[in-house]
Amino acid sequence: MNARRLEALTDGVIAIVITIMVLELHVPAGSALADVGQALPLLVAYALSFVNVGLYWNNHHHLFQLDPRVDGRVLWANLFLLFWLSLVPFVIRWLDASAYSVGATAAYGIVLGGAAIGFFLTERAIIACNGPQSKLALAIGRDHKGWGTLAIYAAAVPLSFVSRWIALALYILVIALWLVPDRRLSRLARP
């Protein structure tokens, strides 16, 4: 299969996810600037989620700049990633409706962690398809950044039952880790 079709599908799903997220934003009831305060929790959840989804899109793009071959394993791993990303609008609605309840905060981490697993599996499937000497395998190496991300989500979800603020801080830490495009991939990408 041509990797471009897989990229196009991923681009389309991510565009829909972002569209659904923004459509969930509601206009404040009043006309004063202070009325935006009521929408602030949802705006924060939207901003965090937008950046997260954008990071997956950006890093997914870098994966495929290395011109990998794809097979059924890659397709299924990528669908697993897209499944979790498609749940992001649901959990941000729950965060807003429940005033960032413990359950919603944990679910947010489960969804983000599921997406991280999906991205990790997609990387591994591409490496399996292209071999241990492929550009991606050489660029990723031991993937401390990927393993670290999974560990942070694994810690954040149970910690949300101790303090949702600690969990949210850990979710933001993951964003900070990935905010700069992954240089391991961009230095080997096609021009």
Shape: globular
Count the DSSP helices.
Answer: 9
Order of helices and strands: HHHHHHHHH
What are the low-pLDDT stretches, counting only 5+ consecutive residues below 50?
none
The residue fraction in helices comes out at over 70%
Rounded mean pLDDT is 90
Radius of gyration: 18 Å
Quaternary organisation:
single chain
Structural class: mainly alpha
Tell me the fraction of residues in β-strands, as a range: under 5%
Q: How many domains, as an integer? A: 1
Main beta-sheet annotation: none
Number of DSSP strand runs: 0
First-to-last CA distance:
22 Å
Keywords: Ion channel, Ion transport, Membrane, Potassium, Potassium channel, Potassium transport, Transmembrane, Transmembrane helix, Transport
InterPro entries: TMEM175-like (IPR010617)
Catalytic activity: K(+)(in) = K(+)(out)
Membrane topology: Multi-pass membrane protein
Structure description:
- There is one protein chain.
- The chain is an all-alpha fold.
- The chain has one domain (3-186).
- The protein is 74% helix and 0% strand.
- The protein contains 9 helices and no strands.
- It has helices spanning 3-23, 40-64, 72-86, 88-97, 102-130, 135-140, 144-159, 164-178, 183-186.
- Helix 1 packs antiparallel against helix 2 and helix 5 (102-130) runs parallel beside helix 8.
- It is globular.
- The mean pLDDT is 90.
